[in-house]
Write a structure and sequence with these properties.
binds adenosine-5'-diphosphate; alpha+beta; five-stranded antiparallel sheet; six-stranded mixed sheet
């Protein structure tokens, strides 16, 4: 291409230079003939300038009218330039055609997509959206260039967009129809853009609600007869009846108690999933005092197992939350640590404020540990790594699911690190917004 350009330039300049020399030669000859060299040169130079201007005009006309009339005339000296431009125009037309086909396919594809797709820049300003976004979110062409938060007004969605350490998706009620639930995913792409997708998940949301209602209803219905059976069994057990085998009665009582705990846990889980914490239940919680209460509550189990419970922090850290729920979550983790550690094992309780002002509460044990492929499944309902051991110890397989929901309700998360045979570390991470107060650090033993 460079070579060609040089050729083009050489050709134009060469042609002009040859013409100039011819003009000057003729001017000199004519000047001698008329005996006025200066006059002659001036006239011939003027003609040469007019010739240059005219040829430029012809070329300009050719370029500007190329699209309308391809057979328009051009000056011979621009032959190379015209051929090169012709070639470029043809290449450009081919690329444009290919681009048009691609654009058409992309538009057809995005139009047939059931999901709404919106492209936003790194300031969440709308750049493009597909047809489904017009129907699902009522977006209009004039919305291009407007911040997405001005177009979709929903507290959950706003919080999702404004949080830096956000999840991959959020569910929210459609701003247009209260019975439609939308699930939105945010995916970064390119250097400074995001792709937002919106899917109508009302049906699966409805099924999920039906499932939760079903579990709640069955649990409610089972609770009453079970309480009656439990009551009778206890009465028979205490009545010193010689006709009844005490070991069978003990087994019946044990199983009835297990069922009762399981039903209570299921009801608790349903409540956690279907409600929000009332604002009045949020209070400042002193973690130091809470830890002392937890240790007291587990005294019987930890004494039985001869655990050495160490508190690695002594800060006066206050977080805001539901005392009842956080107490229940931490107690669950501590009882698990005792349950899944060997006799005499050490358990470490720690809590601190991280650099990013998150409050971390962790319980570390040196027990059986959890296989890697089970770590991500621990918070599923009824998931147990060792079913036999869990049942034997009276576990329901619902404890960590309850902990996860309690953390979700506090905008926090449960993190698990574990090495099989070495132990586990369960951390509850509370967001910066829930940190109420903090002071200095030291270490103590219980
Ligand atoms: P469970 O009532 O069975 O303890 P959880 O939901 O509390 O139910 O725990 C689920 C499973 O996770 C347990 O069955 C157990 O296999 C595993 N697990 C929980 N905590 C620990 C721990 N500290 N160490 C090892 N395994 C644990």
């Amino acid at each position: 291409m460079n070579n060609q350009n040089n050729k083009i330039n050489n050709y134009s300049i060469t042609a002009d230079l040859i013409n100039l020399i011819i003009f000057l030669a003729v001017a000199v000859i004519v000047g001698y003939l008329i005996n006025n060299l200066v006059y002659s040169i001036l006239i011939f130079l003027s003609i040469f300038i007019i010739y240059i201007l005219y040829s430029n005009y012809v070329f300009e006309r050719w370029v500007l009218n190329y699209k309308k009339n391809k057979s328009i005339e051009y000056h011979q000296k621009h032959q190379y330039l015209v051929s090169a431009l012709n070639k470029s125009f043809e290449e450009f037309t081919t690329v444009k055609l290919k681009f048009n086909v691609l654009e058409k396919r992309f538009k057809e594809l995005s139009a047939s997509m059931p999901d709404a797709v919106v492209v936003v820049d790194n300031n969440f300003v709308t750049e493009w959206f597909n047809d489904a976004a017009i129907k699902m979110l009522s977006l209009k062409d004039i919305d291009i260039g407007r911040p997405i938060l001005h177009l979709i007004r929903n507290p959950n969605f706003t919080k999702f967009i404004n949080t830096k350490d956000r999840d991959t998706h959020v569910n929210f009620i459609s701003p247009l129809k209260y019975d439609v639930t939308i699930k939105s995913f945010l995916v970064p792409y390119g250097e400074d853009r995001y792709l937002l997708t919106f899917r109508d998940v009302s049906e699966s949301d409805h099924l999920d609600k039906m499932r939760r209602d079903f579990v709640a209803n069955v649990s409610h219905e089972l609770k009453t007869p079970l309480t009656v059976i439990f009551g009778y069994l206890e009465t028979i057990s205490l009545s010193d009846n010689k006709n009844v085998d005490q070991s069978i009665l003990d087994q019946m009582l044990k199983q009835a108690k297990r069922m009762d705990i399981m039903i209570s846990d299921l009801l608790k889980l349903t409540k956690l999933q279907t409600t929000n914490i009332p604002e009045k239940n949020f209070s400042p919680i002193n973690l130091k005092n809470l830890v002392n209460e937890l240790i007291l509550a587990c005294k019987q189990e930890s004494n039985k197992n001869k655990n050495d419970i160490k508190i690695l922090a002594n800060d006066d850290i206050y977080i805001r939350g539901s005392y009842e729920e956080i107490y229940s979550a931490f107690l669950n983790l501590l009882l698990n640590a005792i349950m899944y550690s060997g006799k005499g094992a050490t358990i470490e309780i720690n809590y601190y404020v991280s650099n990013s002002k998150e409050t971390i509460f962790s319980i570390k044990d040196y027990g059986v540990g959890i296989p890697l492929d089970s770590v991500n499944r621990l918070t599923e309902r009824f998931y147990r790594v060792d079913k036999g051991r869990s049942r034997e110890q009276g576990g329901t397989g619902l404890g960590l699911s309850i902990v996860k929901h309690i953390m979700n309700r506090h905008d926090g998360k449960l993190e698990v690190e574990s090495i099989i045979g070495e132990g586990s570390n369960f951390s509850c991470v509370f967001p910066k917004s829930l940190l109420a107060m903090t002071s200095s650090k030291s270490t103590s033993d219980v």
